[in-house]
């Protein structure tokens, strides 16, 4: 979490049309107070764009508050964001405003917003709708004047379809959309960035700062799964470890070779497949999430996937327009959060209707109805015989489970 007042506009290096377009859109939306969603793979400059928006907004003299959503401690998320009233809980001696209030008059940047728990997403939605926050334990809501910019490397639309991100929150946030391309798709920008880093980095003060011409094809051939951040690190190491007056192609190749443990399958020989399978043990995942978590490019991931798909360890699923992967033979219910929530409602409340599920998931009744029908098709729920809006769904206890006594008691 960090706050910085009076932010100067950050400097972007690059001329490729996709980057220039993204910055143009960011500046256009910056003048309004509309929320903005910035997407792109890791290290592509999402935070830099958020700072760019702030610096071009009427709020530039106000605070820029960064909230690192994945690293908010689970039990303190609400306190961090919304603050608390005096005596709200043991240890809350004095009242304290949260990060949202801290951003008053400025910009709140929620980094990796997709990692916020669903319950917190609901509270965030209310703040966005009403422009007010309620500290924990307080009775009144406080008005705040805050502009929200969020970033996500995951596709939030896909997360909505999977039930991991509230649909209503998505519609409240996605007014301005800025998408950053991966570095490998930015052509000659890679060379511009490398040269710029060598000549302007404080970290390299007093070191070799030029780039030899033979470095260009090496830079263009690499995949850069870690994008601009990876390029900065590789250039730093090449500048430090090389021997000539300027950084050569051979210097860069040497750094990339030494970094092979981070590198993908064709080089690491099967290790990626093993990591992939271990990762899928935790549940069903989309390709983009997999590539990010495993720290490899999509093309390397595809190569590893084709091996495990061919030998039947992993299977491919088509969920709407999204392609996802899971260990072959895994049951759906264990891996679809929407299904998990529906089953939890049935376990706690005896039955579930589409209205109840829609409310719990923050989706339309039509979507909830589709989820319930799919669960019936898959033999997880059965209809209670009523029709229309009041149609209810009950759990099915399989004969095997009933015999083993493993399934929870369900009262209809
Ligand atoms: N076009 C650019 N010109 C100059 N520097 C850049 C550019 N894009 C990114 N950077 C630099 O690359 C690094 C990574 O950028 P940033 O932290 O904004 O990426 P990110 O997309 O938020 O990454 P992550 O997904 O890992 O949080 C930073 O040091 C940033 O200054
Ligand atoms: Mg970031």
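^ structure tokens above, recovered residues below v
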């Amino acid at each position: 979490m960090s706050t910085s007042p009076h932010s100067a506009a950050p400097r972007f290096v690059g001329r490729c049309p996709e980057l220039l377009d993204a910055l143009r859109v960011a500046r256009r939306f910056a003048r309004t107070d509309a929320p903005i969603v910035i997407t792109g793979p890791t290290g592509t400059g999402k935070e830099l764009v958020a700072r760019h928006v702030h610096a071009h907004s009427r709020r530039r003299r106000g605070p820029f508050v960064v909230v690192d959503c994945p690293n908010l401690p689970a039990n303190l998320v609400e306190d961090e964001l919304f603050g608390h009233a005096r005596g709200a809980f043991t240890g809350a001696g004095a009242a304290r405003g949260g990060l949202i209030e801290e951003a008053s008059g400025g910009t709140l940047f929620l980094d990796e917003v997709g990692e916020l728990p669903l319950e917190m997403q609901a509270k965030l939605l209310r703040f966005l709708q009403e422009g007010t926050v309620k500290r924990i334990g307080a009775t009144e809501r406080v008005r705040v004047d805050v502009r929200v910019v969020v970033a996500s490397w995951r596709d939030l639309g896909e997360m909505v379809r999977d039930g991991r991100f509230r649909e209503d929150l998505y519609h409240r946030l996605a007014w301005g959309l800025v998408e950053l391309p991966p570095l490998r798709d930015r052509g000659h920008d890679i060379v511009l960035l490398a040269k710029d880093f060598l000549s302007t980095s404080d970290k390299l003060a007093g070191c070799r700062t030029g780039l030899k011409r033979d470095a260009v094809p090496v830079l263009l051939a690499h995949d850069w799964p870690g994008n601009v951040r990876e390029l900065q690190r590789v250039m730093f190491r090449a500048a430090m470890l090389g021997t000539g007056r300027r950084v050569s192609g051979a210097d860069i190749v040497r750094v990339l070779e030494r970094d092979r443990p981070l590198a993908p399958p064709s080089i690491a020989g099967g290790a990626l497949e093993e990591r992939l399978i271990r990762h899928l043990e935790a549940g069903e995942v989309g390709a983009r999430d997999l590539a990010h978590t495993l720290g490899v490019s999509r093309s390397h991931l595809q190569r590893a996937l084709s091996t495990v798909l061919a030998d039947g360890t992993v299977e491919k699923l088509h969920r709407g327009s999204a392609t996802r992967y899971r260990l072959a033979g895994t049951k759906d219910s264990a891996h679809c959060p929407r299904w998990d929530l529906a089953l939890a409602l049935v376990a706690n409340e005896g039955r579930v209707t589409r209205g109840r599920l829609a409310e719990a998931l923050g989706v339309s009744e039509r979507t909830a109805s589709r989820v319930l029908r799919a669960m019936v098709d898959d033999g997880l729920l059965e209809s209670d015989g009523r029709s229309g809006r009041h149609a209810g769904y009950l759990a099915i206890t399989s004969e095997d489970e009933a015999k083993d006594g493993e399934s929870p008691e369900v009262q209809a």
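The radius of gyration is 25 Å.
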